[in-house]
């Protein structure tokens, strides 16, 4: 156990009752059964009257998760088998309540309780001051550590636009609930082209509105929630397939993508370059434009137009309405005509409705007419002479990261309040200060920020689960980590390459990030170990069973599934519960059944070949060549090129130099 927390019981406060807070609480209250530590006394404080966070308090009509249930479900409490691939917000809140009941978290949860301030003394003890809303009573609780899980969606960000008050109705997306708020025959202007902005625009254009304008500042990239399902040879009259394809976020194979990638290759831009070309190539092949899903306008600005720099917008229901006026007038070259005759993604019918894309407003006149900035883009040329007089504006401009409960303490420490020994007390960090895997500051591990990293394609809840696991092990049982302290050179490879001046600079590649956290905990299995584990399960079940292509599973119930799922499956969290400090006996069953079921749904060309075979055939040999080069370089010059975590099962020279799973 960490010497700082050698006394029992350790007390930990969790701030926020959304998915991040609940999963952190779950691992805190059960840590003793996994890590061999004394039981932890944990309290979760939530200002709302129910758990769920943004999914409870800030959702709207027809709201649906943009990440799949396979990825979003926590590792040891899976969504129901009969749940759809994408849960509604209402169903997800129900799932979170079931999660609390399953792990008996309710006794530790304090709803309708506002954390007013957090302070600490020179010994490092934290004091949480909170308000019980029902009684007005103010109480305090002393603890040893703080998990900040208040989320990215708390304080609305409302940018200043001159004259915006001249628009009759102005709301932030946090206040939007249903189409009925648009009224009838109204002109609606939506500010912000993220997933919320796209959703609100879609709801507006499918309501009895007069006109819908979507404003953006630097572009966006619409992406599908599912793998594409194009029509082959439409020139011959082929019809769209009714096949429901797999969700995009669990269609990516991990072998040679995150597993067994040499550090030199991992730290280079090679994988980013490949996937940028891959994404744009597939989009052009199936829709005729590389800028986004059927997206003829509004692509990211040149300095952002790369998969390593953008957040994919999977709220793509709005995409055909945005592109409609531009698709009709797009030039049809000979190559484009040939492409369309061979392969084409079905184009949804907008029934004549359009979403007018526009640059960001410069100002609004006293009469309520909007003047847009001259962006030099096609949408500026189309809209510059239009008279736009909105009846309503919806700010879909995100939220500001604020931690008001730290404010009084930090102010007192900064100004050297004479009532405290300020020189001996550290101010609290904020999320942007967390320099160890984006979770805690290296000099302040008792304060964690769970759920503040945003994936470009993925989901925050499973990221939060992995963050909570790592933080708790690091806090209470660092001797269980393969490497302590954690190696800072393993930080950059999973982060997005945000352009200078970006408002959001905490983006990560989901697959790479959770894999790195698994490596940090020794929870990522290698090829030798996964095959050995599969053979052990085969022996325990009895019988030899059939092969993956034989169609016969035999008595072993398909022992070969485990290695195949390990290699071909995405990095869902259950994969990292098969070993390590948080080992769970049910992990293999989930992998062999639920995850295998998702892999079986994949099609051969668009799924297995393009998302598995092609990347593996490129990066597998490339990693091997890099390993050979690095080995020869070390032999000749005595210098190590790149570092990799110590393998968990294999002792071969190759395994020691490859980043493994």
UniProtKB/TrEMBL annotation:
Record keywords, A-Z: FAD, Flavoprotein, Membrane, NADP, Oxidoreductase, Transmembrane, Transmembrane helix
Similarity annotation: Belongs to the FMO family.
Q: Where are the transmembrane segments?
A: 609-630
> Does the UniProt entry include the keyword Ribosomal protein?
no
Superkingdom to which the source organism belongs: Eukaryota
Which protein are we looking at? Monooxygenase
Q: Which Pfam families match?
A: FMO-like
Q: What InterPro entries does the database record attribute to this sequence?
A: FAD/NAD-bd_sf, Flavin_mOase, Flavin_mOase-like, FMO-like
- GO MF entries: flavin adenine dinucleotide binding; N,N-dimethylaniline monooxygenase activity; NADP binding
